[in-house]
Amino acid sequence: MHNKKILASIICGLLISSNSVASEDFKQGGTLTVPIIGTGFVDNYNPYTTKDLLHGVMFEPLLVFNNMTGKTEYRLAKSAEYSDDLKTITVKLRDNLKWSDGSALTATDVAFSFTMTKDTPAFDQKGIWTAGNLASVTATNATTIVFALNEADSTFIWNLERYHIVPEQVWSKAENLTTFTNPDPIGSGPMTEVTYLKAQQMEICRNPEYYLANRPYLDCITFRSYNDNSQIQPALMKGEIDWGSNFIADVENTFVAENPKNHHFWYPANDAIHLYVNTKVKPFDDLNVRKALSMALDRDEIVDIAAYGYPTANFNVGGIGELYDSYIDKEVTAKYKDITEFNPEKAKQLLDAAGYTDLNDDGFRDMPDGTPIEFDIEVVNGWTDWIQVVQMVTEYYEEVGIKANVKTVDWAVYDSSLKDGKYKMAINWSLVATNPILAYQEYFDTARIGKTWHAGHGVHSAKIDTLINSFGSTNDPKKQQAILNQLQEFSAANLAFIPLFSNPTWFQYNSSKIVGWPSKENPYVQPVWYDGGKRNLIINNLHLK
Amino acid sequence: MSFLLRRLGFYFTAFLIAISFNFALPRMMPGDPIDALFAAAQGRMDPAQMDAVRAMYGFMDGTLFEQYISYIKSVFTLDLGPSVLMFPIDVIDVVGMALPWTMFLALGSLIVALILGVTIGTYSSYHRDGLFGQIVPPVLAFVSNFPYVVTALLLFFFFGLQLELLPLAYTYDPSIEKAFTLEFISSVAEHAILPMGSMILVGIATWVFNMRNAMINVLGEDYVTMAEAKGLSGPRVMYRYAGRNAILPVATAIAMAIGFSFAGSIMTEVVFNYQGLGNILLKGIVARDYPLIQAILLILVSAVLTANFIADLLYVWLDPRISN
């Protein structure tokens, strides 16, 4: 009997992460303290209006797509399969799932949770209903849910991890779901019992009915409210919090050096940072100018000096960075290698050849018609590391005779400037998702123009739209990769954005009382706090030392 | 009486103008609350969802004029709607949670600065040729002329970070229960030392000089010379004769200072993560949380106007010539 229990816990452990050691010997107990940047906590346990604070903590996702390992980590679901025509997804739940109040969690709850977001469009976070592809969600028996799609779409399943599974018994009785604060919350995640709530601190403790034996190892999670990074830094230094996920200036000296044995950071690659170029305005309509502007930059220096060396320089012209390493088409990188190599001489030659020379002897190049070239690179006020990056970029441009200025703007100005394509050049990230196709959708899909930040550069084509949309009609990884390769070729050939580097995933942790953290040695998940699924995997692995 | 009625009319008009600014200001800033939410979500929200979210927060209110009318109505009924940041909590409740802390901070530091300032002002002007009178006022003038943020950050750095003597953030230790216990009260006091201390440091000089100027005028009066000539003791002349008369103009300045001390606590709260109105206002502005910004500005405007009105009443009471 005892052996069976051990075996069961080992299997459960393996299900969570093959890389972590499963053991029953982990001590139960302990409290994890994490910082939240916000206005403070209020008595609201509606996961849709608490801006994701509770996802993966109080509300367990069906499954989690682990972009670090490339695996699908099944959580409430034990399997999720597409039909052959890619128009139906059948999700099977684990057996004997329970809500934290002891009642059964069934397929009806899951179907209700998804259907609920159809009637409350503000909760439809990934637009699964408004986009029109999802036809129905039905519970066919106690543990089976069927998602019926109108069109074949192998990418649809990625949306499922973003939706919260809530108990029908409670939520069906709520009068107005958007103002419903879910008092006395019932959840299915590792931590469900709110032990106290104050304006500046909230504590949630273990779910007595959690489906994994012995999990969570921790007793409670304490959330503490802070104004900004500059307050989290001293809190980390003083050991008040265990898990930081924000930029900390000079982390080796300010944090690690305080206590090298227990203070750690691990900054794996995250989103790719580019200089977005508006190809609708002169002289950026000339591909040679864009190429020259890319060649003029010494990416290694920029990373080292302007960004403390934390990011990784990105020499892939195909639009994606190290985060998506396994998807990168090395041939495209090699073919267009000269574009990202630091070569100011070549940049000057390109500009000379294209007719951009200094006509009025002010030391800067002019357009062939004599108008001076001068442009702003937009960056948000207060984003200090990026402001330094842009500052360096303008210096490199000056070396090849191009006059560029740093323009720091309020984010709202930046927001509309990028969305409406009103910028000349701006620094911004790229979308991070389960698969790079979503980033390409953001870059090139004409349907995104005017709606999101990355499509305002003016490089589009009907052929590319079709290509992007065809991705979902297959689930053959080879065919999908072929599409991604074409998109990388298209990005590189047109250079709507100049790759700079991959941003790090900001992650600092304190191991003096709690261990089990993802790390360089044990990279079981990308350590992002603000992603409910990834957070859930980490919380399930943490335990007392 | 007609004087007061006229003043009331004036304040009402001022109030209307001020709340109109409250309405206009956040709307003149670029960006709207839903764009802010969307940007903060960094791709975890679908653009298709934006209109639905906008509707959820109640931002589909028709033309600007219609919005204005319903805003004015909401001000007078105190039904200011839900906060965007803390949806679905009403801003009135959000403000209700934060206001007591701001009052504690603003009024507490004002009172301490006032008592210390008036005492020092009285003493230093009476002994203006002594060492104290020569050194203390210039030192205070020097300290209070530092930009406030510098003073606050220096205190933060030395006492909180380097010496680790005092807490860096919060109104009280978030791990203890909020109850009328010694533990709670001492925690509140401990957490108030740095934010209040920085405000006192900056505010005290005003009172010293207010009092000092008034005192120096009074000290030149005949009845003071007379009292001194009678051979009355120093402290008696200083407090009973000069001090009591000098404090009248200071008293009217106090009423004005009440209103402004609320505004002044904003920076303090941000630096020390003190959970008052200023702290919330800052986040509200970043998130373009119109209802929240409006509610807090409404409080500030009301505080300033009320304090001014009290100052008017004081004038009437102190100087009977005005009411005629």
Automatic annotation (TrEMBL), chain A:
Spans through the membrane: none
UniProt cross-references to SUPFAM superfamilies, sorted A to Z: Periplasmic binding protein-like II
Signal peptide: 1-22
GO molecular function, one term: peptide transmembrane transporter activity
Keywords on record: Signal, Transport
Ranges of residues in domain Solute-binding protein family: 73-440
GO annotation, cellular component aspect: ATP-binding cassette (ABC) transporter complex; outer membrane-bounded periplasmic space
Family affiliation: Belongs to the bacterial solute-binding protein 5 family.
Protein name per UniProt: ABC peptide transporter extracellular solute-binding protein, family 5
Automatic annotation (TrEMBL), chain B:
A biological-process GO annotation: transmembrane transport
Matches recorded under SUPFAM superfamilies: MetI-like
Pfam annotation, one family: BPD_transp_1
Keyword annotations from UniProtKB, A to Z: Membrane, Transmembrane, Transmembrane helix, Transport
Name of the protein this chain belongs to: Peptide ABC transporter, protein inner membrane binding component
Domain annotation ABC transmembrane type-1: ranges: 99-311
Annotated GO CC locations: plasma membrane
Transmembrane segment boundaries: 7-25, 101-123, 135-159, 192-209, 246-272, 292-318
Locations listed in the record: Cell membrane
Glycoprotein as UniProt keyword: no
Topology term for the membrane: Multi-pass membrane protein
UniProt family annotation: Belongs to the binding-protein-dependent transport system permease family.
Primary location recorded for the protein, binned into one broad class: membrane
Keyword Cell division in annotation: no
Annotated source species: Psychromonas ingrahamii (strain DSM 17664 / CCUG 51855 / 37)
